[in-house]
Amino acid sequence: MRAPLLRVLVRGPSMAPTLSDGDVVLARPGRAATPGDVVLVRWDARPDQLSVKRVHRVRADLAHVLGDFPDGSTDSRTLGPARVHAVVLCRLWPRPGRLPARQDRP
Prior knowledge:
6 strands; 6-stranded antiparallel beta sheet; mainly beta; single chain
């Protein structure tokens, strides 16, 4: 049986322009993340915080994740590898649809 889908409210500027503060996304827990995916993550240093980031690389059960807006993001550059909680499938609100791929990052 699959885990239920999660509806998550995005807070902050770290994923701009892909996602904005106030956007609502739909995510699936338990799905394997690959580089380029937008995901929900947790860090050991901040276990109560769920963050939305983009996967840069995956190693074992941890991922190096970055925000699409580097100057406004606290991510793996500061906190180290993160544990992927769920993969974001789409944006529900205010502009429903697929999320664009990040093109200008190696």
